[in-house]
Write a structure and sequence with these properties.
- The protein has about 250 residues and is an alpha/beta fold.
- The chain has two domains: about 10-100, Heat Shock Protein 90 (2-Layer Sandwich), CATH 3.30.565.10; about 120-245, Response regulator (Rossmann fold).
- It contains eight helices and nine strands.
- The protein has helices spanning about 55-60, 65-75, 120-125, 140-150, 160-170, 185-195, 215-225, 235-249, and strands spanning about 10-20, 25-30, 80-85, 90-100, 130-135, 155-160, 175-180, 205-210, 225-230.
- α2 (about 65-75) crosses α4 (about 140-150), α3 (about 120-125) packs across α8 (about 235-249) and α5 (about 160-170) packs parallel to α6.
- The radius of gyration is 21 Å and the shape is elongated.
Length: about 250
């Protein structure tokens, strides 16, 4: 909004749209009085690497990933994201998300463990652990990296299975997150080849896939993977799974 608004105002608003028990659907909006966006361009804005047109990239920069990542994060929180706009008048970008109602908590005494959640334990005990993320979809790469960096982990990315095998052969990793459907070499074949490397017989390899059937899980385990996460990946489950396997090393 700041880049595209040379004069006027930018307004941030937040409201509760719905409540179900202890869950709230929150809607956030960012409105500006900037250049606006043509109606025919709006449907493609949330696609990876898409911007309004080539002149937008030349003048304002950017990769065209920000809105795609925003929508994916909103979907992970049970919501959605969108935009309304008028050329010459401005735009409103919005997202919704389901959030839990906060509760007051009693401060733990100084001598008690202040951890509890898997993410905080990873930050405290496994900061800097080396994770290889094998994923061909750029938006999924960025979302996963955000989660992993927040947990204090160091992340290297391989865009397909063949690259992952080469990276594993050249560097030590503490854990591998492996997508299943990828070009050139899929996750199953990549896992078999990585398991054949002397240093990787015991390194945890966790599948991440949208295929959540029992036969898919069986294929993953047969190829040498240790665990299985369904997409879209829930951050809490991701952290708890990583923590469980790092503790077994």
């Amino acid at each position: 909004a700041v880049k595209f608004t040379e004069s006027g105002a930018i307004t941030l608003s937040l409201r509760i749209d719905e409540r179900q028990g202890d869950a709230l659907r929150v809607r956030a909006e960012v409105s500006d009085t900037g250049i606006g966006i043509p109606r025919e361009v709006l449907p493609k804005l949330f696609r990876p690497f898409e911007q309004g047109d080539a002149s937008t990239t030349r003048k304002y920069g950017g990769t065209g990933l920000g809105l795609a990542i925003t929508r994916r994060l909103a979907e992970l929180m049970g919501g959605e994201a969108g935009v309304t706009s008028d050329v010459g008048k401005g735009s409103t970008f919005w997202f919704t998300a389901w959030l839990g109602v906060g509760r007051s908590v009693q401060q733990a005494p100084p001598d008690q463990d202040d951890g509890g959640c898997a993410e905080s334990v990873l930050q405290r005990e496994y900061a800097g652990a080396q994770v290889l993320l094998v994923e061909d979809e750029p938006v999924n790469q960025e979302v996963a990296k955000l989660f992993l960096f927040d947990a204090g982990l160091d992340v290297a990315v391989a865009g397909n299975g063949a690259v992952a095998v080469d990276m594993a052969a050249g560097s030590p990793f503490d854990l591998i997150l492996m997508d299943m459907q990828m070009p050139e070499m899929d996750g199953l074949e990549a896992t078999r080849r990585i398991r054949a490397l002397p240093a990787y017989s015991q390194v945890p390899i966790i599948a991440m896939t949208a295929n959540a059937f029992a036969e898919d899980r069986a294929q993953c385990l047969a190829a040498g993977m240790d665990d299985f996460l369904s997409k879209p990946v829930d951050p809490d489950r991701l952290f708890s799974t990583i923590l469980r396997w790092l503790r077994r090393r």
